[in-house]
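Model the whole thing, not chain by chain.
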Amino acid sequence: MCLAIPVQVESLLDNDEALVDIGGLKKRISLALVDDVCVGDYVILHVGYALSKIDEDEALRTLELFDQMQALQEELGASLESDGSGD
Amino acid sequence: MKYIDEFRNGDYAAEVARRIHAEADPERRYRFMEFCGGHTHTLFRYGIPDLLPANVKMIHGPGCPVCVLPMARIDAAIELAVRHQVVLCSYGDMLRVPGAHRTSLQKAKSQGADVRMLYSPADALRIALENPQRQVVFFAIGFETTTPPTAAVLLKAQELKLRNFSVFCNHVLTPPAITGILEPAQQAGERIIEGLVGPGHVSVITGGGAYDSLARRYRTPIVIAGFEPLDILHSILLLVRQCNAGRYDVENQYSRAVTASGNAKAQSMAARTMTLRDSFEWRGLGWMPHSALRIRPEFADYDAERRFELSPSEARENKACECPAVLRGAKAPTDCKLFATVCTPDNPIGACMVSSEGACAAHYSYGHTR
Ligand code: SF4
């Protein structure tokens, strides 16, 4: 029951509520616990309430880290290969 | 969907797993506890333990709210529904947890009690509005994540001056539970884990700063993690690095959702409506001081424990059920004699087999054949 999921806000409704899309299903959720939510924002949804917004910059920063890790690995792999076939 | 697909990228995951293998020192052992049931679920679902070196082991912690609620509280909920004949509204998982004499809310319901499963506390409020002649009680359970939504309905009920709505409050706190696990080991001069995968959604509310003193006190690194498989692998790598460097800091891997100070609005709504209990009983951890919340006296009209007289429970846990040890990380589900024989998700003996986030249920669904 603790599971919470990221959802995207599709439209804002009265009474501090919003409409979100959960796997094709439209659902009404409460925004009572968060401020300044806009259409298009991702929020963490738990028991019908948005708990926080997902920070897009931070999400991208984390993903960049993985990109770098992989790039490094590929470089290492490439240099090993070139070493092997060098002479 | 954005922010899900990227964090499930298999190439990234393979790379992070390779790093863990490269950086984990074969001479050391790394026992990491994931506190959250949600993390347990992801670990099993994506077979993460199989990707780790043999000396990096995951231990399941007490972070499933259904699993840590003692039988006496389940009996009280059943009593509200049966003896006081209220409309009892509960999250789905609670319905099947056995109470005393192997009754459950589900059995009470099949015998005519008005027990309703709901997805959001807001639904309980709606039921109260639609049934002014009935007393409606919301069976509130959960950690800091689930507390603010309960606070929101308490505030709403007061605003609407509802006379037929109350909350049976069982909200519990994460830091005391971590203390409950680590303190006895510290006292005994033992180490039971080398690091902690910190709660993600709890931290969305509390903020990462809530764990600083725990990391220092128990000299245990804590990495707050998101719930995608890549998040967990990445957090394990960060823990390995801290162990290797001899550090014990709180790191925030889930920075897209967790800040240092958390959600201030949600915290203040919870503080307005609820306050610390002197002591509360946890399944597996026993009575722990200042480990749970009760409803503030100003909201006494909405407190089911004040509105209804509840008798002391005669609950006896099934002696063979190892839930208490499983919740402390002292035993694995497979150490329990009843596991997968008498006790299955269809016929759960203990709470750890009921909730999908319970360690026994996760083992049964994804892992026990391995
Ligand atoms: S397998 Fe069943 S009886 Fe054994 S510890 Fe888990 S829930 Fe309890």
